[in-house]
Amino acid sequence: MAELSFTSKLTWSGSSQGVVETGGQSLQFSVPASMGGLGVGTSPEELLLSAVGSCYTATLAGLTEARRLPAAGIEVRVEGTVSGYPGPAARVSAIKVHPTFTGIELGREKEYETAAIAARERCFIGKHLGPQVTYSVGGVEFAAETPSAGDVLDVRAVPPPTRHDLIFRKL
């Protein structure tokens, strides 16, 4: 097995905020306002949720593809809970992912739900959270696919009589 290496550079300024440089991008971060910080940019807590959520989402996408479960899109909302704040016992105590699939194959919802649970077990970032953090999958949701620009009938350039005919024939 190969070893992979990843790097991020973090710089903290005297103004109670910092910058994360990773993947060719820069992100401002600070302590959240809810914890007495500046609330500028993202926060370490949100970065942790993003790390778990992005790993979970990529794993879920890979599982749905491997299981031949078509989906036009997958959106994952991630919630985190900090317990014991303020004080030295403060910690992230729970992380819950909430996947929503769009454009699925109807009748196979249970298979998508099974893949959502399996992705939680296979996400290797989530495996590093340890027993002190409850990591779970919330309700799996299914949403109607929103039309893409190619599915929208744009009749603005069509002369009015023809436009009227196109609109009402299409509806």
Q: Could you explain how this protein is built, in words?
A:
With 171 residues, the protein is α/β, with parallel strands linked by helices. Helices cover 28% and strands 27% of the residues. The chain is built from three helices and seven strands. It has helices spanning 44-66, 109-122, 160-170, and strands at residues 9-12, 17-22, 25-30, 73-83, 91-102, 134-137, 141-143. The strands form two sheets. Strands 4, 5, 6 and 7 form a four-stranded mixed sheet that branches. Strand 2 and strand 3 (25-30) form a beta hairpin. The radius of gyration is 22 Å and the shape is globular. The termini are far apart. The model has no long low-confidence stretch (mean pLDDT 88).
Helix residue percentage: 25-40%
Q: Mind describing the biggest β-sheet?
A: 4 strands, mixed
Q: How many helical stretches?
A: 3
DSSP, total strands: 7
- Specify the overall morphology: globular
Mean pLDDT across the residues is 88
Query: Ranges with pLDDT <50 over ≥5 residues?
Result: none
SSE order, one letter for each helix or strand: EEEHEEHEEH
**Percentage of residues in DSSP E strands:** 25-35%
The structure class reads: alpha/beta
Say what oligomer this is.
Answer: single chain
Rg (C-alpha, Å)? 22 Å
| N-to-C CA distance | 57 Å
Key structural traits:
3 helices, 7 strands, 28% helix, 171 residues, alpha/beta, 4-stranded mixed sheet, 3-stranded antiparallel sheet
Per-chain topology:
Blueprint: E1 9-12, E2 17-22, E3 25-30, H1 44-66, E4 73-83, E5 91-102, H2 109-122, E6 134-137, E7 141-143, H3 160-170
Parallel strand pairs: 5-6, 5-7
Antiparallel strand pairs: 1-2, 2-3, 4-5
